[in-house]
UniProtKB/TrEMBL annotation:
Family: Belongs to the cytochrome b5 family.
Chain segments annotated as transmembrane: 70-88
Pfam families the UniProt entry points to: Cyt-b5
Protein name, as recorded: Cytochrome b5 heme-binding domain-containing protein
Record flagged with keyword Transmembrane helix: yes
Keyword Transmembrane listed: yes
Domain Cytochrome b5 heme-binding, residue spans: 1-42
Molecular function, one GO term: heme binding
Ranges where the record places region Disordered: 1-25
Length: 91
C-alpha cells in the first residue's frame, strides 16, 4: 500500500470505507479498489465481527542504527576521496 502498512493495520478487521473516502484517493485508486471488493457484509452480521487484537508494529531503534546513517557514508566518502587522489596523482 503506498500509504504504508500502518494504514492497513489500523483498519484490520473493520470497515475502512469512511477512512478511504476521507483520504481523497485518485480516480485510478478508486478504479483499482473495485477489483479488490468481493462483496458487502450483511448489516446483521456486522455486530458478530470482533476486532483483532492490537497488532504489533516493530520499529527500528534509532540509537542502534546511528552508525549506519553516518559512519558508513563517511567511510565511503573517505575511500572515494583517497581513490580519486591516487588516480589524479598518477597522471
Amino acid at each position: 500500500h503506498p500509504g504504508g502498512e500502518e494504514v492497513l493495520r489500523e483498519q484490520a478487521g473493520g470497515d475502512a470505507t469512511e477512512n478511504f473516502e476521507d483520504v481523497g484517493h485518485s480516480t485510478d485508486a478508486r478504479e483499482l479498489s473495485k477489483t479488490f471488493i468481493i462483496g458487502e457484509l450483511h448489516p446483521d452480521d456486522r455486530s458478530k465481527i470482533t476486532r483483532p487484537a492490537e497488532t504489533l508494529i516493530t520499529t527500528v531503534d534509532s540509537d542502534s542504527s546511528w552508525w549506519t546513517n553516518w559512519v558508513i557514508p563517511a567511510i565511503s566518502a573517505l575511500v572515494v576521496a583517497l581513490m580519486y587522489r591516487i588516480y589524479v596523482s598518477e597522471d
